[in-house]
Amino acid sequence: MKNLSIFASALCLYGLMATPIGNLAGIKTMPVAAQTVNGFNVKEVRYGQGGMFQQQPDGSWLEKNRDGQFTFQETNRDEWSVYLVKSDGARVQLDLFKKEIILNGSNKLYDILSSSATSSISQSSTPRNAATRTPTLPQNDANQPVSTEPLPGKQCVYNNGLYVLTVDWFDPATIIYTGGNTKDFSNYEMTEDPHSSENITLGYSSCTNVKNRVAVVRIVGHDIANEGIVIAAGAVTGIVTGAAGAFACVATAGTGCPAAAAVVGVATSAAVSATGLALPDIEEIAYLGSPGTEKYLDVSGTLWTVKTSQTVPLSRSRNAFLEDPIVRGAANFITDGDPGPKSITFNNQSGYVAKMTVIYHEYKDFGNGVIVTLPVVKSSGDLPLGFSRHVDIPENIADIPITVSITGTATIKSDIYSTTIPANFRGNKCFKTWATIFDAKAGTCN
Q1: What is the pLDDT of residue 122?
Q2: What is the per-residue pLDDT across 2-51, written as a single tens digit (0 to 9) for each?
Q3: Which residues pair with 243 in a beta bridge?
Q4: For residues 281 and 279, what is the distance between their CA atoms, to the nearest angstrom?
Q5: Could you say which of 116, 138, 161 is where a domain stops?
Q6: Which of residues 50 and 252 earns the better pLDDT score?
Q7: Whole-angstrom Cα distance, residue 415 to residue 354?
Q8: Greatest CA span in the chain, whole angstroms?
Q9: Does the pLDDT value for residue 238 go beyond 60?
């Protein structure tokens, strides 16, 4: 990890929207506004057929056209745009750079014919978010202000793939984008450790009871060629805007920050200091973004065809055995009944075939007072993903520790795990495998 202090004259705060990383790579950074009329001082915008947006003395905006008059509230300004929202939730961006009026972040409504820093009506107050003040953050999909503090809600990442995922949940604004290629995860830093972190195998979810955390999702032990990742339509991935949460983009006067529509909120204060640590294991990252609060973020596919999508609502409970044809054939994880009173269970949660071997010792009486201990070898057999098997251990065995070893088939390292347990243990001991053929892992089930 690198420890870096970044000083700049501006801090760009990013919300997270449903736009794939690849779609942002070609977007140019907007130049800093230097013209007389800009996003910070504009008060009137005119478009075709006599239509106009006009700021009112109370800070609200009034749209006038041949269909009538409509009132909007201002939510944010940056160098080139004013962001408005109507009571029905419709979001409008007055983009002076593109000379367009944009609906809900992507739909062009009109071309801007002219703009003015003065209004044809009397202004009795300075507009909110004027250049003398730091603008508020962009609004999210629910038209609630983006917050740099955790907000109550729910986000979930669901593992629907043949690998183990590590999901790190970061609090808002603790992930910093430092400029450069948005698909290069070395250009992101963290100012704090994750709020929480956990590993999830196929059919399991990692959730947080906050609606604006940032998820960094890794495939354990696998170096991912990021350009090979397939991003399904509608997936929320990378630097995006429209969901609650924020990246901080540190740059000089706004330059170097990727400028997707409706994302940039520039602080006009003095120099900003931020200390960030590089994200660890960036070669394993499959996703970096905010999963949103309405649907699971599904990570699926194989090591070579990683996919993300969002189609299943959070209100629905998940069952991999019903959803996924890969594991549908397994009725449940326990495939051979209940474990015995003294038993060892092996559970394969990995993307490869694995086997557990158990060795214990029994006394053998050969007569004439000759009693020796002989090893007894039992195996779970080769088990695919999603299967478990129990190995029963007799009550009366030699007082020699029992050896448990786990091996993988076609894994880079065939000997994955080995341990011993006392011969006089009672109950059930459980061991499992996870991760990939490149970095196979095993341990206890707890």
Answers
A1: 44
A2: 333 332 333 232 333 333 333 222 222 333 333 478 888 899 999 987 88
A3: 16
A4: 7
A5: 116
A6: 50
A7: 10
A8: 116
A9: no
pLDDT of residue 125: 35
For 96, which DSSP code?
Answer: T
Contact 52, 63 (CB under 8 A): yes
- Which of 197, 74, 206 has the alpha carbon at shortest distance from 137? 74
Phi, psi of 329 (to 5 degrees): -70, -20
How far apart are the C-alpha atoms of 160 and 298, rounded to whole Å? Answer: 6
Report residue 98 CA to chain centroid gap.
31
Residues 365 and 285 in one domain: no
Cβ atoms 181, 239 nearer than 8 A: no
Strand 44-47 relative to strand 107-116, pairing:
antiparallel
> What pLDDT does 61 receive?
92
Amino acid identity, position 359: I
Per-position DSSP letters for 106-154, written without gaps between them: TEEEEEEEEEESS-SS---SPPTT-TTSPPPPPB-TTS-B--SS--EEE
3-state DSSP assignment of residue 9? coil
Q: Number of helices and strands (H, E) in the chain?
A: 2, 32
Instruction: Report the alpha-carbon distance of residue 307 to residue 242 in Å, rounded.
Output: 22
Residues 204, 262: one domain?
yes
* Res. 210 pLDDT band, cuts 50 70 90: confident
Helix (H, G, I), strand (E, B) or coil at 187: helix
Q: Which pTM does this prediction carry?
A: 0.39
DSSP 8-state code for residue 66: T
Cross-strand partners of 429: 344
201 shares its domain with 302: yes
Q: Give the tokens for residue 353.
A: 């075939």
326 backbone dihedrals φ, ψ, rounded to 5°: -65, -40
Would you state the structure tokens that stand for residue 145, as one six-digit string?
């202000």
Residue 318's CB is within 10 A of a number of other CB atoms, namely 18
Instruction: Domain of residue 93: give its range.
Output: 44-116
Instruction: For the beta carbon of residue 382, count every other beta carbon within 10 angstroms.
Output: 13
DSSP state, 252?
Answer: B
Highest mean pLDDT among 12-21, 179-188, 201-210: 201-210
In a domain, 433, yes or no: yes
**pLDDT over 90 percentage in the chain:** 17
